[in-house]
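Hi U.,

Before I forget, here's the chain from the pilot set. I'm dumping it here mostly so it's searchable later in email.
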Amino acid sequence: MSPRYTTLMASLPPLGGLFEAREPAISRLKLQSRLSLLHPHDRQRLNGAIRILSQGLLGDASQAGESSGQPGRGDALLLEEAERFFREVDHPLLRQLVRHRLDLRTIVAALRRRHRGEAEAPRGQAWGSGPLVATIERHWSEPSLGLAGLFPWIGEAVLLLETNDLIGLERLLFSLIWRELDRLAQGHNFDFEAVVIYLARWSLVERWSNYDATAAAQRFRQLVSAGLGRFTDTLAVCPAR
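Structure:
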């Protein structure tokens, strides 16, 4: 146990539950200031993981490249970054975090491609990462991609995609990551691993609070538009006085 990490963790406020806070318990600026206590070597290793963990879970489906059936440039860059990370970083917990995140992203990428109507696996393309790719490509036509035993949540993800509930899908994925962080946190309270887990949790809370606010604003605009539409329809059918 390092005194610097004991001091660092003691200075960080509890984050609470993932979906409870409207904003993180500590601002980004204050958190960055506290992280000045990180050992330079640990900071370097952490930065490599952050470049991957900070990526969205739903990929760049909005980009033209992926909509045409080819992987988006963001996906290609992420895969290159992942290869570099696993070559250069040997820290077990960081590797577990990154592997788990990439596995989630790979599964979701396959489900979204299939949802768009791709009847065959995208063999020969750099569309996913890790050992799951081969299994998914062999079981492309199966509802759970041959992974139901390892990832029982895939069925729920499929239903959310079928109803175009991307907010619900994001919430599901965030919950899975939070649960994995709970598992990895066991035995780590005042060490570098505890700092890593705190940062990963903070990132989820921040992203969800921003995402939730954006989604709420979008829903409000939709309701307003729908209300105005009904109002103008009413005016259109009312007889002139």
